[in-house]
Amino acid sequence: MFNAANTAFGTTVFCDKPTQDFHSATRLLLPNVEGRNSTGLLCNSIVKPPVNILFCLPKPVDLRAIIIKPDVARHRVTHLSIFLRKECNKRDRTGAALQVSRPGDIIRRLEQLRPIASVNLDKHPEGSVVLLHTHQKRLLPPCAFPNNAPCIYECEVSQAWNGAFHNVRFVLIRICRLASASCVPCLGAVELWCVSPPDYIESVGVSDTRRVKQTETVDSGCSYTNLPHDEGVVNSRALPDDFVDALTGELMREPVRLPSGNCIDRSSLNRFWTERLANCPHDPRPVDPFTMVSFDERSIECDGSLKQAISDYLDRCKQLGNLCSRLDNWAQVSIPLTSTVVPQLPTSSESEGD
């Protein structure tokens, strides 16, 4: 077996939200087979969930285990979801399949990704490591994270779901909730243990398949079909996508469109620049949070049409709320019962007597 989250294998990783300096998504990939980069991924402090991290493998592999370290220093993720996507068949390489070629397109088209697990770490101690594996024997090298973890959140995929682990090309990890408001989205490490292709074993020399030593595990209560229903995520999902800040996931008040094509609120952009200036005082230039490319601040103007659409949307929501309140009040008013006299039709005997 080998860890596919490795630059030697040709794997690339993409995060759809800005990250801090020296904590980009590429920090989740091993620089070499024996080394380990412990810095991990750390998003900017103004970024809020959901955050998507997509691993793109150079060729299909058969996954055996997915290991996730959900913390970096004091920052900790408590709720995340895992999706997989297979290699497209040759007969499917037309139409919609060809349209999903870039990482951003894959993330936006979640209907083409298969949800595998929903992880909830609220009742698990800090330092817990997530281990998602198939029903087959867990043969992992000694360098795998579960060997040194104080606690393991273990999810075993049933045989009915094992087919999703074959011919995998994309692995998506979605951060849904954090331990506290002071935390930022992060991932300490990710390991994608796969069956070793013969050519990769010869070139890299990874063939250690010793069994993982026994580590204390706890009941995870992992679900494989239901995605997390985090209140904050659900509320943001209820809003139209065009009205949501690409950084914070909140409703925009003064939307501005960046050179990268993303739309965020003016206040979010100012906060990002202020925090970046505090961390990098030698570079005061305004930059796009998603590309880190500098641009002329004067070229950024408020999107008037989008702002008006958001205002109209809020007005309709307010009117709907008022209507619901009036209906509730009307239902609570006691309506006195009135008796109605129904005229009786004469029977046949009464008619004959008359």
Can you tell me about this structure?
- The chain is α+β, with helices and mostly antiparallel strands.
- The chain has seven helices and 16 strands.
- It has helices spanning 96-99, 103-108, 198-204, 231-238, 266-279, 304-332, 348-353; strands spanning 2-3, 12-15, 41-42, 51-61, 63-69, 71-72, 75-86, 114-120, 128-133, 151-156, 168-178, 186-187, 189-194, 217-218, 255-257, 263-265.
- The strands form four sheets. Strands 1-13-5-9-10-14 form a six-stranded mixed sheet, with no helix packed on it.
- Strand 15 (255-257) and strand 16 (263-265) form a beta hairpin.
- It starts with a strand and ends with a helix.
- The relative contact order is 0.16.
- Mean pLDDT is 74; it is low at 32-37, 90-100 and 200-237.
Summed up:
The chain has helices at 96-99, 103-108, 198-204, 231-238, 266-279, 304-332, 348-353; strands at 2-3, 12-15, 41-42, 51-61, 63-69, 71-72, 75-86, 114-120, 128-133, 151-156, 168-178, 186-187, 189-194, 217-218, 255-257, 263-265.
DSSP summary: helix tally: 7
Poorly predicted runs of 5 or more residues: 32-37, 90-100, 200-237
Terminal Cα span: 103 Å
* Beta-strand segment tally: 16
Classify the helix fraction into a percent range: 10-25%
Instruction: Specify Rg, calculated over alpha carbons.
Output: 27 Å
Q: How confident overall, as mean pLDDT?
A: 74
Protein name: U-box domain-containing protein
GO molecular function: ubiquitin protein ligase binding; ubiquitin-ubiquitin ligase activity
Organism: Paragonimus skrjabini miyazakii
GO cellular component, one term: nucleus
